[in-house]
Amino acid sequence: MVMILYIIFEREQTKQLIGQQALTTAIAVSEIPEVQAVIAEKGDAHDLWELIERIRHQSGAEFIVIGDNDSIRYTHPDPDKIGMEMVGEDNEQALVHGENYVSVAQGSLGVSVRGKSPIFNDNGEIIGVVSVGFMVSSIDSLFAQGFIGFLIWLSLIFIIGVVGSYFLARSIRKDTFGLEPYQIARMYKERGAILESINEGLIATDQYGHITLINQSAKNILHMQQNVIGKSVKKVLPHTELAHVLSEEKAEGSYETTIHQQVLLVHYKLIDDDGQYRGKVASFQVRSNLQELIHTLSEVQQYSQDLRAQTHEYTNKLYAISGWLQLGHTEKARKFIHEEIGQQQSYEKVLFDQGADPTIQAVLIGKLSKASEKKVDFTLNEESYVTYRWPTHLTAHLVTIIGNIIDNAFDAVALSEKPRIDIFLTDMGKDLVIEVADNGEGIQPDDYDRIMEQGFTTKEGVHRGFGLALVQAALKEMGGSFEIASNDPQGTIFTIYIPKEGGIES
User: Fold this and answer.
1) Which residues does 473 contact at the CB level (< 8 Å), separation at least 6?
2) Euclidean distance between CA atoms 124 and 127, whole angstroms
3) Does the pLDDT at position 435 exceed 90?
4) Nearest to 67 by CA among 27, 39, 46, 93
């Protein structure tokens, strides 16, 4: 459709240009004195023929016809037609109204575009007309030549466009990994949903340190409200280690940092594009949240181990009682049962009559079973007295502290001939005091300051040295403290102090 409109427009424009050329030539010829003189005096037409023919050849016109006021020809390209009346019936505006104009009419040579101009005498009277014409067929031929050239250029441009489009599409598909636009749009939406569904904070920067991605969790952790996409991370998080590392090309790995009085665990990963550095991604979370998860898992694991130990110990005792009964040693079986009941009643008195917190009760019951299985003399001091009940959100910390301290004591007495662990608990003052004494090998005074460090251990083997580090972290969350002392004559005494805040007094 555009091409058809272009052809029509160009053809009409060509006609108008040729018509203006014909009109200009006609006006120029009408003002030649020789032409005016011959027409005014009804002179010999052959006197003008050579002059007019020379002008016609120079202008490129098909014909220049000069007629008098009766439209009788004085000149014509065909000499035989001189003296005959002009054909076309389009002289009225020139001969009657004295106008200069362009017309299209059928003449003796065919359809032509004509420029018409009147001829005036010295008195300003109309005495004739000049008609300069270009054949429409010649105009169409000229237009066709230009149009062919245009088509050639258009075809060349089209071919270049097709080739360019092919290589451009190939480059785009390479950059988009061969994905179609709808696939890219779907991936973009899926990425957004995934980023917002995870609890970890995510922030990405380009090679210049400008933020290109951030999820809602990161905004919440970093206390951001405004849109920060495209901004420099150093301006968004000024004077922070997170911004500094995100701006350094070679820095990656896991680190700890503090922002807004929060300790964050951050992992940095470089964005690599065929060996070229393109930015960095940081994923992070608040350390306390991670520790809470670790504490919860530790609590579940602790309960599982304690229940397994308790089940195993009682199974062994049932087998022993069954064996004595089958062998007729009823008195021995009875005595054993009474000893167990007596020991159990002693434990129950301390745990249930003198202890109000169910979390402490559950942990100690499990450790009693474990001690029985390991043949460790596990004693709960009868003077222990706890009236305080800890709030639910602190129970995980409490399990971590008591469980790991007692487990550490089990490890300490593992090589003792008569292993013994004594437990004492009281909350008479403002703190819950937990004292765990063992008769193990003890701890060197030089190691007191390092005993709570993560990974530090005096035992052989890998993956050790984490229990007391978890205890220290839990104590820090609860505002507690600890003391380490030597047990006389052998072993170690751990004393834990935990402030009573937010709980319930029985």
Assistant:
1) 291
2) 9
3) yes
4) 39
CATH code for the domain in which residue 343 is found: 3.30.565.10
Q: What is the pLDDT of residues 277-327, one digit of tens each?
A: 888 888 888 766 665 566 566 656 666 666 666 676 667 777 777 887 788
* 11 shares a domain with 134: yes
CB burial of 159-195 (b: ≥16 within 10 Å; e: otherwise) equals eeeeeeeeeeeeeeeeeeeeeeeeeeeeeeeeeeeeb
Residue 36 burial class via C-beta count within 10 angstroms: exposed 0-12, middle 13-18, buried 19 and up: middle
371: left (phi over 0), alpha (psi -120 to 50) or beta: alpha
Q: Where are the alpha helices (DSSP H) in 232-376?
A: 233-236, 241-246, 287-326, 330-348, 358-374
Better-scored residue on pLDDT, 149 or 232: 232
406's torsion region: left (phi>0), alpha (psi -120 to 50) or beta?
Answer: alpha
Domain contains 240 = yes
- How many residues in the chain? 506
**H/E element holding 51?**
helix 46-59
Q: Is residue 320 part of a domain?
A: no
Q: How many domains does the chain have?
A: 3
* CA angle centred on 456, ends 417 and 403, rounded to 5°: 60
User: b vs e for 366-387, b when ≥16 Cβ sit within 10 Å of the residue's Cβ?
Assistant: bbbbbbbbeebebbbeeebbbb
- For residue 218, the enclosing domain spans 182-286
Which amino acid appears at position 351 of this protein?
L
Residues 6+ apart with CB under 8 A from 263: 256, 257, 286, 287, 288
Look up the CATH number of the domain holding residue 221: 3.30.450.20
Pair 254, 360 in one domain: no
Euclidean distance between CA atoms 384 and 382, whole angstroms: 5
* Average confidence (pLDDT) over 6-31: 79
Name 249's Cβ contacts closer than 8 Å, sequence gap at least 6. Answer: 207, 270, 277
